[in-house]
């Protein structure tokens, strides 16, 4: 198999820190942190021995049965050779190809000639899936150092249908990285070139496992130019990758969600205000009525390029020194049934919901605003900021508000606002009879909140029994009380091109 052209793109996972449920409506917003854990999709045009039948092979080497072979038919109809269907993968590949052919036919034909096939490889960082079976098979205890000792992109020892996900948004990060890799491969978009590690990182610097070697040093594609409060520049490439991924993710899920997960996979950490769902309604119905293969590529392109896409993305970065950690609770909750319960309560009790959500939204905005202020302060008053971090790390949050330091007071304000958020979520759980912050999670969170350096901790996204997150200064030695933690967010960057050889653990799949 001789490779002619290769394109590799990664996209981060997500943690919705605040704004769960509210973010479904565009009068509110959600604060989403992109994680350092990423999906990496690699598309290669390879030589074919059978000129009569073009094929696309998609490999997901972390899973039993993780391989799908598609025969490419008339009008780019994909015919799955096996019996196992992966709708997310098939829709992402088929619709991206249709779009690519409509948008740039000559680049499409040049990179997918009758003498070539496509080889696609999809892998996700270990944090997307519970690693308990791996650790058990290796007789390793459930600790973060055991997690860190695993191979990057390690095998899950199971099938995709049976794997335990951790809630980092595997489907959104997978679809976004795959769609972006495909449209980049066929020159529909031009993301910035990947920067070789040799040009950005001193050779002596040790790099973390399973992460792109140039990740921390490289300027991310969506980094705003001056302050971190201004709206992120929606470059055309990101806009096309975003709109296409939103469309395909909605279609694969069979519904139009808020889309915060796809948005953070593209743009990184930000406050997200959703797009108006009607931009997709008609196209979704057309795809359902005549299958995705009955809809012309030009029609998809028209919707993707429409100026009706109105989601809003405002940059928020975690202040330096504040780290996001996640506990893989592995109990699990069904997001759709939680959402159903909350939306039913909202319909039946509009006044009660309006009052509670208005007040919740105020706290959510305060948190995002104060995190931005802290980020700015870390640049404008670096000495005072560093001094404060050292104090925060060794003290309890309840003592911060009495400090004379303005920076410490900002930390106290974030802490207090998030406690208010939790009170509101507990109230919503009670009123709606839906376990958004269930009592067992409340007890666990109250325990964690008492630890030194903890700025906030809560249930991410829809809540329930899935996971908990902690924002903490000085994360060392945390896991004894909290349980197995996955270290997650850092730079908060979004979509990024990669060099296969420079993503640790990736080259072995080629
Ligand atoms: N590594 C992968 N390779 C191929 N397909 C994948 C992979 N990971 C996820 N998927 C696809 O995404 C689907 C999971 O989507 P689902 O919406 O249930 O997860 P999610 O809610 O995004 O997960 P999470 O719990 O991580 O937030 C799988 O059934 C599969 O089709
Ligand atoms: C409840 C909701 O607002 C957030 C769900 O978040 P998560 O999948 O639990 O991280 C739904 C959505 O925004 O699509």
UniProtKB/TrEMBL annotation:
Residues 204-217 have a biased composition (Basic residues). Residues 193-232 are annotated as: Disordered. GO terms for biological process: farnesyl diphosphate biosynthetic process, mevalonate pathway; isopentenyl diphosphate biosynthetic process, mevalonate pathway; steroid biosynthetic process. One of its GO terms (molecular function) is ATP binding. It catalyses: (R)-5-phosphomevalonate + ATP = (R)-5-diphosphomevalonate + ADP. It is an enzyme of class 2 (transferase). GO terms for cellular component: peroxisome. Pathway: Isoprenoid biosynthesis; isopentenyl diphosphate biosynthesis via mevalonate pathway; isopentenyl diphosphate from (R)-mevalonate: step 2/3. It comes from the Eukaryota. SUPFAM superfamilies: Ribosomal protein S5 domain 2-like. Its EC number is 2.7.4.2. Keywords: ATP-binding, Kinase, Lipid biosynthesis, Lipid metabolism, Nucleotide-binding, Steroid biosynthesis, Steroid metabolism, Transferase. Belongs to the GHMP kinase family. Mevalonate kinase subfamily. This is Phosphomevalonate kinase. It comes from Rhizoclosmatium globosum.
């Amino acid at each position: 198999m001789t490779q002619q052209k290769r394109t590799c793109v990664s996209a981060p996972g997500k943690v919705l820190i605040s704004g769960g449920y509210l973010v479904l409506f565009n009068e509110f917003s959600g604060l989403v942190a992109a994680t350092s854990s990423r999906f990496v999709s690699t598309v290669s045009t390879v030589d074919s021995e059978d000129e009569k039948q073009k094929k696309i092979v998609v490999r997901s080497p972390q899973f039993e049965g993780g391989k799908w072979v598609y025969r490419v038919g008339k009008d780019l109809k994909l015919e799955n050779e096996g019996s196992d269907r992966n709708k997310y993968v098939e829709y992402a590949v088929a619709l991206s190809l249709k779009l690519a052919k409509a948008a740039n036919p000559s680049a499409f034909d040049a990179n997918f000639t009758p003498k070539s096939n496509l080889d696609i490889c999809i892998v996700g960082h270990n944090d997307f899936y519970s690693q308990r079976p791996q650790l058990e098979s290796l007789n390793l205890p459930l600790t973060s150092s055991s997690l860190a000792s695993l191979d990057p992109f390690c095998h899950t020892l199971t099938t995709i249908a049976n794997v335990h996900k951790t809630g980092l948004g595997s489907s959104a990060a997978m679809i976004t990285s795959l769609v972006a890799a495909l449209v980049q491969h066929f020159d529909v978009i031009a993301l910035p070139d990947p920067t070789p590690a040799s040009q950005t990182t001193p050779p002596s610097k040790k790099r973390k496992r399973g992460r792109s070697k140039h990740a921390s040093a490289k300027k991310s594609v969506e980094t705003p130019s001056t302050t971190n409060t201004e709206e992120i520049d929606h470059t055309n490439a990101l806009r096309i990758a975003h709109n296409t991924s939103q469309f395909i993710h909605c279609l694969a899920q069979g519904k139009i969600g808020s889309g915060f997960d796809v948005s953070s996979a593209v743009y990184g950490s930000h406050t997200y205000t959703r797009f108006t769902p009607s931009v997709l309604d008609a196209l979704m119905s057309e795809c359902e009525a005549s299958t995705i293969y009955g809809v012309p590529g030009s029609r998809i392109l028209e919707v993707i390029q429409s100026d009706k896409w109105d989601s809003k993305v405002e940059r928020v970065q975690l202040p330096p020194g504040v780290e996001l950690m996640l506990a893989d609770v592995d109990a699990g909750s069904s997001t759709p049934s939680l959402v159903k319960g909350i939306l039913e309560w909202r319909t039946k009790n509009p006044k009660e919901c309006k009052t509670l959500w208005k007040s919740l939204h105020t706290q959510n905005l305060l948190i995002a605003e104060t995190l931005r202020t802290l980020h700015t302060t870390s640049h404008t008053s670096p000495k005072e900021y560093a001094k404060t971090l050292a104090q925060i790390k060794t003290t309890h949050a309840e003592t911060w508000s009495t400090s004379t330091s303005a920076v410490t007071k900002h930390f106290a304000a974030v802490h207090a606002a998030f406690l208010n958020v939790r009170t509101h979520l507990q109230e919503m759980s009670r009123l709606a009879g839906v376990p958004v912050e269930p009592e067992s999670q409340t007890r666990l969170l109250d325990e964690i909140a008492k630890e030194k350096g903890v700025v906030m901790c809560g249930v991410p996204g829809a809540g329930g029994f899935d996971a908990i997150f902690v924002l903490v200064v000085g994360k060392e030695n945390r896991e004894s009380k909290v349980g197995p933690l996955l270290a997650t967010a850092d730079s908060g960057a979004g979509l990024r091109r990669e060099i296969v050889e420079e993503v640790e653990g990736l080259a072995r799949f080629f």
